[in-house]
Amino acid sequence: MDLIVFTGILIIALVAGLMGSLLGLGGGVIIVPGLVLVFGLPIQEAIGASLVAVIATSTGAATYYVQEGMSNIRLGMVLETATTLGSSLGAVLAIYTDQSILAVAFAALMVYSAYRMIRRPERLVFSDEPSTGHPSLSASYFDKNTGEEISYCVRNVPRGLVASFFAGNMSGLLGIGGGSIKVPVMNIWMGVPLKAAAATSNFMIGVTALAGALVYYASGMIEPVVCANVAVGVFFGAMVGSRVAHGSRSSTLRKIFAIMMMVIAVLMVLNAAGLIEAV
Amino acid sequence: MERGKVEGYIRLVLLGGMVISVVTLAMGLMLYAISDGTWEHVTLSFGEIIAGIAQGNPIAVIDLGIILLIATPLSRVVAATVLFAVNRERNFVYVGIAVLLVIALAILIGG
Questions:
Q1: What is the pLDDT of residues A194-243, one digit of tens each?
Q2: Structural domain of residue A116, as residue ranges?
Q3: Does residue A279 lie in a domain region?
């Protein structure tokens, strides 16, 4: 690998980490198209690298959320049984799927992410009567913004498991964290407050991506220098981003980025059709 | 053990794994960037990675970093399962074992 490619991948990863933490989306939607469209990597290798990077960012963020008591570890581990299964099967599917089909699936995911960036369908769920959920999964955390202790119960676990399997599947298949599926599911179906849902989703992402990454690893799809570059770049990009972000996310920035994602999605489809080549 | 303590230990495992793996990866990348880029890829067995590091092969250092990074969430699952056992939360011990079994399955189906 020459120095220009080496540095280029590092820069894309830094940008992905930075934008990811500023806009609250995983780095995968930036890294995979970046590696495919700019550097012409096979999409499976790009997805493998993205999964390794996802492990790095989610682990970094988890150390913070777990300390703050926002991640519901028990609920996370219950749902992980489904996400890991989904992720490993998704990775197997990706390895045997045609590159162009994967690229089109990825483009569809980008359009969905762009939509979610403009319209966030989550709502704030208030705590239920303690009797309605699973007592061993109920939890509480201290909300710094309101200064209140928030307690909640978890319901609809079977439905959550099915959705988690699907989220894991997307993670292994496309190299993303899958938070854009798990957070609304935990929030709307399972009654977990938004902050706890986001923290618990992040907690699960490391193990979910690990199951998928192991399949790519065992199949020889993990290119070490690319993966290391992406993981280190995204990690430091996210670290800087989370220092700068401070909660408020500009809606103009979100809209500009959503439009950019739509454009990149179109480029991915054109690339899959063989109409445009990597730069 | 109180409920909050499990979280405390898990955070330590994650933080330790994170620091060690990112430092190893960054070191490997720096060695790779200053090398002439002609190093061979090592096969991914632990013995060969160690032998590669002994020869000063930067790709072997990177491989070690990736393995350490992947091992971090895995050791978190193991730690949580052990902590649930100490806490006598039997249901969650089973949950932890189930997650570990799926991960073992992922290695088998990938290979």
A1: 889 989 999 999 999 999 999 998 888 888 999 999 999 999 988 888 77
A2: 3-272
A3: no
Whether residue B102 lies within 8 A of chain A, CB to CB, comes out as yes
Q: In whole angstroms, what is the distance from residue A152 CA to residue A2 CA?
A: 53
Q: What predicted TM-score, i.e. pTM, was given to this entire model?
A: 0.89
* Distance separating alpha carbons of residues A242 and A85, to the nearest angstrom: 31
How many domains are there within chain B? 1
Radius of gyration of chain A (CA): 18
* Four-residue CA torsion sign, A13, B70, B17, B40: negative
**Distance from C-alpha of B86 to C-alpha of A170, rounded to nearest angstrom:** 35
Residue type for A250, please?
S
Q: Pairing state of beta strands A139-143 and A148-152?
A: antiparallel
* Spatial CA neighbour of A225 closest among A88, A48, A16: A48
The interface predicted TM-score (ipTM) is 0.89
- For chain A, what is the domain count? 1
Q: Give the closest-approach CA distance of B55 to chain A in angstroms.
A: 18
In this complex, the residue of B28, B41, B99 whose CB is nearest that of residue A207 is: B99
Contacts of A52 in chain B (CB under 8 A): 66, 69-70
Report how many helices (DSSP H) and strands (DSSP E) chain A contains, helices first. 10, 2
Whether residue B25 and residue A136 make contact (CB cut-off 8 A), yes or no, is no
